[in-house]
Amino acid sequence: MPARIGVVTFPGTLDDQQALRAAAAVGAGPVELWHKDRDLHQVDAVVLPGGFSYGDYLRAGAIARFSPVMDTLIDAARGGLPVLGICNGFQVLCEAHLLEGAMIRNGDLHFINRDVTVRIENNRTAWTSDYEAGAEAVIPIKNVDGRFVADERTLDTLEAEGRVLARYLANPNGAARDIAGITNAAGNVVGLMPHPEYAIDELTGPAGFIENRRVPGTDGLPFFTSILKSLVSA
Amino acid sequence: MARVLVDVMLKPEILDPQGQAVQRALPRMGFDSVTNVRQGKRFELELADADPATLRATAEQMAEKLLANTVIEDFKVTVLPADAESA
């Protein structure tokens, strides 16, 4: 039986279908999870997808963090269940204190929808093991509250423990220390602002040429092949 | 019925791009004296059957848990006198 990757849908989630599609693309069993359902249906890993859960009315991810599914998920994540929060999902993980820091409005206040290049700084997590250390990946961002912030001590800790997962080569939003993603100490919980699920095939991903380097459009795929491999070998 | 105000502000060390945008706009309207703007939120809560003795503690719990993200925000709880209108 293939590994089962659950994807949570909150009211206002946008990218659940893309995350399910990415899971299927690497040969995992995609499983739809519902915010009101506490049951994780025996999935082996969970993706919290992008969007505007509960409208982000209070703060991005603030209300989603208290949904029934998160009660179960927070305990499971602390117990080692691999969880990838993408964009709004990253915000939910921060609000749930599974990851440090918080996301505030982009520096220029604009909604930014653009392909960005990130450097994978930590390829030892469940979600990044299929990247070469220091690999550069072209992946789209699309957010308005994408600017990662934390106090200096927290940032220093993240750096010292190698928990900065990915960094922007050209900082699009003023994120502290160019941080695009971080991981928890155990490496099972990962938060990422860019959207790897939108960079999994040549036709729909950010394919093209950047400074004469060919970009295949599939630079996000290793997030999903990584988790599949780590589940198979677990 | 009891009334409680919860004011939520970004911590001083957290940049406030929204406040900065307002700060840049004000001089264009002739308000040249503005040197800094910080933007925040206020929650006006009405509580039924609230025990006056625990009112502040209850409001602080609500602020800690949901209304503020204490990673980046500070909050201030003000309990209004029983018959007061919104301050």
What's the CATH class label of chain A? Answer: Alpha Beta
Number of DSSP helical runs of chain A: 5
Give a short account of the largest sheet of chain A. Answer: 9 strands, mixed
Number of DSSP strand runs of chain A: 13
What are the segments of chain B in which pLDDT stays under 50 over at least 5 consecutive residues?
none
The chain-level mean pLDDT of chain A equals 95
| Terminal Cα span of chain A | 14 Å
* Structural class estimated from helices and strands of chain B: alpha+beta
Order of strands in the sheet with most strands of chain B: 2-1-3
Distance between the termini of chain B: 16 Å
The stretches of 5 or more residues of chain A where confidence is low (pLDDT under 50) are: none
- Rg of chain A is 16 Å
The assigned structural class of chain A equals: alpha/beta
**Rounded to an integer, what's the Rg of chain B over CA atoms?**
16 Å
Which term fits the overall shape of chain B?
Answer: elongated
The CATH homologous superfamily of chain A is termed Class I glutamine amidotransferase (GATase) domain
Total tally of structural domains of chain B: 1
